[in-house]
């Protein structure tokens, strides 16, 4: 197989070079070494000699189109070099990028019915299911204080359920405990966690749910009702008041399913190997 030179086009929010020292999966093989095995030369920056390009779409403040965006669109339409778009934003927050994107070349965390699915990469970690009973019998919530989240947190607290909230930005609630410097370590103190996605539209699915699962929490998930995640079947529960109240009765089954995900290949949908395989396989076929 001939080598493939990939140019990762810079963006303001996402840079893949820090990934290169991380393990692709549980094997310990680093991303950098894995790329070498696959005969990939990865360059950060717009290298004219590269065979293909990787574009990372970004949000535009106040709806303005940046010089970078204009240059990128010119390259895609005029230079005709093979490329792939990766969009890590909700569609409602990145309307320009989605309106200009070619569905045949775009992978997104909010694909709707038009684009291909993108999964953010994460590391495997031991969920420590055996220590679950020793954790705090409380609900952990890590996320920004969006209005609908604040309303739900007030409702949960009013139900008499213990909840601790973490974020860099303060919540207007006494349950706010400050910033969670290490999301996984903080989550592992708790039996339960709520994950409320930034968007409940277009099948948006970020890294939040998997981070909760790999922390070993019984997770109550709020997302687009049309989102389907068969690889995580049973390892989380859709949020509802009734399920939250009955959490202790359901916890054993959920934790058993969580262990089956984390100690099998089902988790690898979120691995760095899968993330780069999707990019490489698509670009080799372009």
Question: Could you characterize the architecture of this molecule?
Answer:
The chain has 286 residues and is α/β, with parallel strands linked by helices. It has two domains: 4-121 and 271-285, Rossmann fold, CATH 3.40.50; 129-267, Glycosyl transferase family 10, C-terminal domain (Rossmann fold, 3-Layer(aba) Sandwich), CATH 3.40.50.11660. It has nine helices and eleven strands. It has helices spanning 31-37, 67-79, 95-100, 147-158, 183-187, 208-214, 241-245, 247-262, 272-285, and strands at residues 4-8, 40-44, 52-57, 83-87, 106-108, 116-117, 136-142, 163-166, 190-196, 218-222, 237-238. The strands form two sheets. It has a six-stranded parallel beta sheet with strand order 2-1-3-4-5-6. The protein is globular, with a radius of gyration of 20 Å. The protein starts with a strand and ends with a helix. The relative contact order is 0.14.
Descriptive keywords:
9 helices, 286 residues, 18% strand, Rossmann fold, 11 strands, globular, 5-stranded parallel β-sheet, 6-stranded parallel β-sheet, 2 domains, alpha/beta
């Amino acid at each position: 197989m001939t080598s493939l030179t990939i140019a990762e086009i810079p963006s303001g929010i996402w840079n893949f070079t820090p990934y290169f020292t991380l393990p692709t999966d549980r094997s310990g093989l680093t991303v950098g070494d894995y790329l070498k095995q696959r005969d990939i030369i990865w360059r950060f920056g717009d290298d004219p000699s590269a065979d293909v390009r990787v574009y990372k779409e970004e949000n535009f403040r106040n709806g303005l189109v940046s010089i970078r965006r204009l240059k990128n669109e010119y390259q895609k339409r005029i230079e005709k070099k093979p490329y792939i778009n990766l969009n890590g934003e909700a569609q409602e927050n990145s309307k320009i990028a989605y309106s200009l994107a070619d569905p045949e070349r775009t992978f997104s965390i909010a694909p709707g019915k038009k684009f291909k699915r993108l999964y953010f990469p994460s590391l495997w970690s031991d969920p420590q299911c055996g220590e679950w009973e020793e954790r705090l019998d409380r609900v952990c919530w890590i996320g920004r204080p969006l209005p609908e989240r604040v309303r739900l947190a007030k409702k949960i607290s009013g139900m008499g359920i213990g909840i601790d909230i973490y974020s860099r930005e303060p919540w207007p609630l006494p349950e706010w405990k400050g910033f969670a410097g290490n999301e996984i370590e903080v989550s592992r103190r708790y039996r339960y966690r709520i994950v409320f996605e930034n968007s409940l539209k277009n099948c948006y699915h970020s890294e939040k749910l998997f981070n909760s699962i790999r922390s070993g929490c019984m997770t109550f998930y709020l997302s687009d009702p049309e989102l389907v995640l068969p690889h995580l079947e049973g390892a989380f529960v859709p949020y509802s008041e009734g399920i939250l109240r009955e959490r202790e009765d359901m916890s054993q089954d959920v934790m058993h399913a969580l262990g089956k995900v984390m100690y099998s290949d089902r988790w690898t949908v979120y691995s760095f190997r899968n993330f780069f395989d999707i990019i490489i396989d698509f670009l080799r076929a372009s």
